[in-house]
Amino acid sequence: MGAEVARGQQTSPPAQADGSILPFPSVPSASRAGPTLQESEMKWRKQPDRLKPGAPNVLIVLIDDVGFGLPDTFGGEVHTPTLSRLRESGIAFNAFHTTSICSPTRASLLTGRNHHRVGSGTIAERASDFDGYTGIIPKTSATLAETLHHYGYKSAAFGKWHNTPANQTTAMGPFDRWPNGHGFDYFYGFLAGETSQWEPRLYENLNAIEPPRSEKYHLTEDMVEKGVAWLKRHQAFSPDKPFFMYWAPGAVHGPHHIFPEWADRYKGKFDDGWDRYRERVFARQKQLGWIPSGTKLTPRPDTLASWESIPESERPFQRRLMEVFAGFAEHTDAQVGKLVDALEQLGVRDNTIIFCIWGDNGSSAEGQKGTVSELLAQNNIANTIEQQLRAMTTLGGLSVLGGPKMDNMYHAGWAWAGSTPFRSTKLVAAHFGGTRNPMVVSWPKAIQPDRTPRSQFHHVNDIVPTLYDVIGIMPPVEVDGFKQDPIDGVSLAYTFADGRATGRKKTQYFENNASRGIYQDGWFACTFGPFVPWDTPSTAARLKGWDANQDVWELYNLSEDFSQADDLSANEPDRLSRMKDLFLAEAKANQVFPIGGGLWTRFHPEDVISSPYKSWRFDGTTTRMPEFAAPGLGKRSNHVTLDIEVGPDASGVLYALGGASGGVCLYMDKGQLVYEYNMLIIERTTAKGDEPLGPGKHRIEVDETFARPGGPAEVVLMVDGGEVARKSVKRTVPGAFTASETLDVGIDLGSPVSLDYFDRSPFKFGGTVDRMVVELK
């Protein structure tokens, strides 16, 4: 072709040595090659130093689902000595913001872009095919790990990822949206939005792994052990290279799982309830100078219960839920402390910049009225506290909270208290209770400790440009042949030396589930939207008549009103109108339209991300198939056929989807065939064959017929062509049993669906599953 370019072939400008185009150009050979060895000279080419001398190591710690008013570092009542230790050695930000929800915050943090711009307007499980809501971070927005890789950094991600499309998490990939595909050299953690701390669904790089079955195991402890081991490997094998570690535990997201001795540290600490908690914390926040002296404590929303309204008979349950959460949070802080200790022991702490972000959003109200099974709210399944208490009593009473048989989360009142002094919680982008999270930055070599709170308005998309700034590299305009989207964040490094420097971030929009807001030069306009995180049933009713154009907006002067206590919309209608217009302009530029795109699957549950298949063929080698990619067993009408071979008194799981928090399973116990439907802990339905199966080959069929999603179901069991059991399930799960549990054939890995074989888990089948065919009806 000569100099001509074939039609359709993409071309890129040559790589530049300044880093504007990555990868860097290849270094030419320093050798001279003649016709013979005698006429040649070999000399190793010298790779140029792409980094300025002393480039720092980077550690980003992102805690999950914790609010502004929780850590005692800043006036709360959860003990956080590591956060305090980092604050004493660095600086803290009291006007730092997240997106109010998991996946979007993480996508924004890792790319330096607004969350809709990188396809992450909602969590991965609620993705839709609007550009801002696909759940796919585009290659046109390279992550920090992808960029730093080209400069020689070694990188590792630990813990919760939650930025891979929910139907791309199987053993067949594709893997380009997994952590390793986004630039990390090493990954150890889970891909979903949450997982059990006792039986997490873990991956090491691209490989599914099983945690040890031990009463002493806890995922957050495992994470720090693996993190420290990685740091030691780095020091052993590449001590001349800086590192980037992203350590993001599943803690303290639900389910709230922790050893009882940690929860017991808080016995009696919260006996007087969430309203009093807020009053105490608010007073301490002012006393510490963490919030301005003129700040007002915002009132409790009308839709949220007061502590006084909680019946005395329920209060031990509500108190213990908060004690478990607090113990879980303190335990998490302690694991961060082990990481910091390791940095010191390895001699690299001085030149490691640590960003410790206390929350990817505010505290979570998804526990609603307090729950033993948090997915009840996600599925909008009606229930009562009485049902919760009966289920808990059956399993052992208050002592089981926090353990492997529970999926507990605290009352939304505790989440609201954890957001002191702000109103609202996680999932609300209009109020700072959902979006304002404390951040501590510690870098002993370059940042002098200073207790002056940094009150400049900043956002999670500012972390990447800050690191580019302090490392001394430019944001690339092209990476691996992809022209890059603009960086939306601004560096906050100017605050490191001057706590009172004038803020440099002029504008920032917020949107989540149609809750939205816009910041500009000290003013904030917002509207709550139709979604009430602490009252899912009312949200369903509100959505039916919701029109974004009819939402009522509020207006706040943040320079005088730290907590959004005084709505000035009636006083400043012109300013409010301009701010609303600005929001629309930002929304259009960042792919936010349609407003409330994250709500689509609540209007249209039939469009929820799922497998495109209608039939499947499995066998006993099929395990760890994530629920969002698996057949809709227990949720959609289906017919299952299993060809098995058994010996005398065969026992074990034939198939299981889900875990102790909810799921469906078919198993054998001493030859007897058993089907169980675990409706999110509070209801269980069992069907059993009358006679044990004799030795030999058998064909087993299970037929599930659903009247409608979430409605009743008729279940029929057949053996060798004859019906052996029939049972009605009075109500079923319409959406998801779990966030990260899987379909397993011939075994129940992870958390066991049935209590009947809980102590025998994973209850591997003693026979052979030659074939399992699933067909949706």
In short:
The chain has 777 residues and is α+β, with helices and mostly antiparallel strands.
What this model shows, in words?
54% of the residues are buried. A hairpin with a 2-residue loop joins strand 7 and strand 8 (207-209). This protein has 777 residues and is an alpha+beta fold. The chain is built from 15 helices and 30 strands. The strands form six sheets. Strands 3-11-10-2-9-5-6-7-8 form a nine-stranded mixed beta sheet. Strands 19-30-21-26-27-28 form a six-stranded antiparallel beta sheet, with no helix packed on it. The radius of gyration is 27 Å and the shape is globular.
Mean pLDDT, as a whole number?
96
Which residue ranges are poorly predicted, with pLDDT under 50 across at least 5 consecutive positions? Answer: 1-13
**How many helices does DSSP assign?**
15
Q: Which value, in Å, is the CA radius of gyration?
A: 27 Å
Distance between the termini: 55 Å
Helicity range of the residues? Answer: 10-25%
Strand order of the largest sheet: 3-11-10-2-9-5-6-7-8
Q: Structural class of the helices, strands and pairings?
A: alpha+beta
Shape: globular
Count of beta strands: 30
Percent of residues in beta strands? 15-25%
Main pleated sheet: 9 strands, mixed
